[in-house]
Amino acid sequence: DYSTLGGWPEMKGVGANSVMSRADQSFETAAQRGAFQLRQVCRDLSVRPIATYDSEYGSAAFMNLTEDIPADLLLRLRPNRCLYKAPEPYSGSGRPRKHGDKFQLANADSWGDSSATFSLEDETVGQVQIQQWSDLHFKKAAQRNFQVIRVTHPHCSGLWLAWVGNRCHL
């Protein structure tokens, strides 16, 4: 497996810099390798970065491995993922629930109302719709809530993203 971590400084006209690039067999999974690289880079930064990852990293394993890393994450989600909403408030009897209702990306009936919606007209693809749902989590990472964002336009039935961080407001 081969992995590259790049950086984009906040300067106009500056391209990407390769921060870390390696072929490494010492990690069992891509999630372990990605978390290791992010941890290494973040320890040398003076600002909180935004890290973007493809759908291979949109998982409970990656969420758990990056929980203590000071970075905001934007992860692409596979469209067959099943997430969970926040549980109802504790009723006072029995063990408190960790998970609420299922939120299946492939089943619109499970989504409920979005917490925010935004639309815009793009001259290339036409009408773009963006929906956001808050306080969702993976079953095996119930302690790590995130926001889910769905982007659609006439040529795309749905791009699903997870935002784990503090700066996402539609």
TrEMBL record:
Residue intervals of the Transposase IS701-like DDE domain: 36-134
Domain of life: Bacteria
Pfam families: DDE_5 (PF13546)
Name of the molecule in the record: Transposase IS701-like DDE domain-containing protein
Biological source species: Pseudanabaena catenata USMAC16
